[in-house]
Amino acid sequence: MNTSRCKALLGIVIALLNTHLLVARAADLDANALVAAADAIRFPTEPFQVQVRVSSISTRGKNELHEYQVLQKGYDNSIVRTLLPVSEKGQVMLLKGADLWVFLPQVSQPVRLPLSQRLTGQVANGDLARANFGGDYQATLIKEEDINGERYAQMELIASRRGVTYQRVLYWVSLKTHRPYKAEFYTVSKRLMKTGVYQNFIDMGGTLRPSRLVLSDALHKGEESVLEYSGLKTRAIPDKVFTKEFLRKLQN
What we know:
It contains 3 helices and 15 strands. The protein is α+β, with helices and mostly antiparallel strands and about 250 residues long.
């Protein structure tokens, strides 16, 4: 094969590789944009507050009811106040960046907690304290599929920083409406922990949002927690609210 022909073939190969890389990058960008769009449907991009009622069902006969008030500002600022049960009322979690603390009544210093720690039933601390995916994960489009006559993107979300609630998430989002449909949550070893299904889209804050999230244990059939969202509204929240100093004063 002569030199000119080799150069021509090499040029074709390089062009094909470059095309492949551009397509892959475009898919990644589209996936991250789709995750951001679904985040904006689940909760407002502006600071907001919402009530969350958590009903946990256990096959071992231990059913629990918890209620929380959540204040959130951006990806990295959240406060979770326990309203029910009465025995836990007054507990407050503060998320600041990647750090999560819990303030307990009659305890002078806050206790640091991991986002992945179980809060109640199938609900982890991070399920309430950090509501969105966009700030913690890098998304890649895996495939498109039809579910109940609607076209969905299935995406793989890999943690982009330490200390997140889950290391890996498979996430289904409607290509037409950008509504979230389902999420599968995995451990570092890629073991499926639980599945979440977004349901009952209603008008909250001027947008149709899922008012119900059902989290089902992947290992123990029948173990599940139902999160019901209500009273969502945007509001101005000063930055000082999301500080340990401010919450210490409230505890005193």
